[in-house]
Amino acid sequence: MRPTVGVGAHVSALWVPPTAGMAVRTLRTRRTRRAPPAMAAEPVVEEDTRPVHRVPAFIRIRDFAKLIKQPVDSLVKMVAPRSHKRFHMEFDGAKYEFKTIKQVVLPFELAREIAHKLNKRVQFDDVEPRFHGDALRPRKTRQQQQEDQMWMRRNPVIAVMGHVDHGKTTLMDTLRQSNIAQFEVEGITQKINVCAAVLGQTQASTSPLTATFLDTPGHFHFFRMRTNAAQVADLVLLIVAADEGVLLQTEESIGAIEDAGIPVIACVNKVDVATSEQCDAVEHDLRGYVALQTCPMVRISGRTGQHLDQLKDVIVQTIEASPALAQRLNACVAPDGPIEGVVLESVAVKGRGNVLRVLLKHGVVKKHDHFVAGMIHGVVRSVNNADGEEIAKGVPGTVVDVMYKRLSKYMDAPIEFGFFVLPAERAKQVMLQRELKIELEEKAVPTDEEMKELRELAETEDGEEQGERANARASNDGMNNAALKSERVPAGFVEETQGNTRPIVVKADGAGSLTSIQDTVDEMTGISTVRLGIGDITTTDIDVASNSRCAIFGFNVKMRRRETKLAKARGVRVVLRPTVHGLIDEITKFEQEPRD
């Protein structure tokens, strides 16, 4: 008989506690219906609180130790251990040797390795200025340009190239309505002349287009000067005389144009003294060069001005037909942006001091600006235009003469280098980096391969001179080869009295001409330069020449009365010439003179 239960008991009887088996069945059911598992929580990354030390491309080990607060001796042991009274460092496959700890310079990569081992954080501090693109800012509308007069377009830069005496300077004189050619020595251009000329109207602007022309020397000694002009130009005018045709420097100019990869216009000049058949023949020859197969050709006369209007129109059309060139020239340049340019020439001008001829790419340069160019840090003292007139500022696309006060210890003539206007403090940092780079390179130890090459070169030069001596003695004295071999000088050793080369001092009026002379002298096996300089002959030049027992050769420079007396008293030979080729001829004669 079933027991009687109440309502409460009935309810409790209906509720059955879950058993283990029921629990398992419930879990199995949930497995088939459960949602995707929740994503695991991301691990908490602790913030790196170590200080970050900014390190430039090169830094002295003493300064680096102070920066990361580590004993300098411990850093030296890590990277430049001492051996045989020298500190030896290896980096990137090269070996360096320093006499003192003060001389040890670390590249950034090596400093970073040290910092990593010491659990320090470093970051590269790039202070070196670099060129920006031509189109720094998008072109403004005409209304915006009128509202903001500070925005401007850059003038196109046109290099005028060709063989010597083919009429380049005469053409420039006609364009600028001047007469530079008559004042040039022997009618030869020996430096880069500059002129500005109005070309005509363009589709992109309501104002006429003004171009800056670079008249380059045509003599073969100025190859580098022509190449530099092509590298900085937007367009090249290749001038070829119709009565002479394509000559050596014409071909060199075409090669420079090909290397630069810029548009070119071929101008057949002197049509006023040439026949139509001569002009046809020149054009046919020019079409044989790859760089000139499709370029425009214009027949002109630089002397009479014949067809110069047509030439101006062709220049404007060529600029507009080149999308990349047109975009660069139509882009507005803000003067408050980076101020940069390229140094074309460095000269010492009497009464003005040191002068840099600079082609401005961007920005405005003015008095009191700090700048760096090569190994020079200076302050602008004045700015002159291409005609020598002092102006308040230089603008993009123009060439200006910058007279400056030198603040750096180096007197480098910075041809081919960039010209950058910077704050004074950053200019100092840039110069320090460049100086440290030079110091480190000077401490590099020659590799075994380099030492082998030096020994082989010394043996070759020694062998050549011994051979000359052998031939001379055999012909004069009838000595046999065995006797000559017994008198051979040890390899790599050159007697001071015999000398493989004759030392000279070279002075010039500008860095461009000095470089051209040096390029030629370097090809002379019997000449070596012990001193190069810009400006007139000084007492220091005479001291060096006297101590080295050598001659002084000067291009387009002067020697005052005091230096003349000093040179005569010390027996120093001084040769001055107004032309580069004349000076080179004198150096060649000096090389061939019999030695005492």
From TrEMBL:
Pfam families: GTP_EFTU, IF-2
NCBIfam families: small_GTP
Species this chain originates from: Lagenidium giganteum
GO cellular component: cytoplasm
Family: Belongs to the TRAFAC class translation factor GTPase superfamily. Classic translation factor GTPase family. IF-2 subfamily.
Molecular function GO labels: GTP binding; GTPase activity; translation initiation factor activity
Region described as Disordered: spans on this chain: 448-473
Domain Tr-type G: 153-324
Name of the protein: Tr-type G domain-containing protein
Keyword Protein biosynthesis in annotation: yes
Keywords: GTP-binding, Initiation factor, Nucleotide-binding, Protein biosynthesis
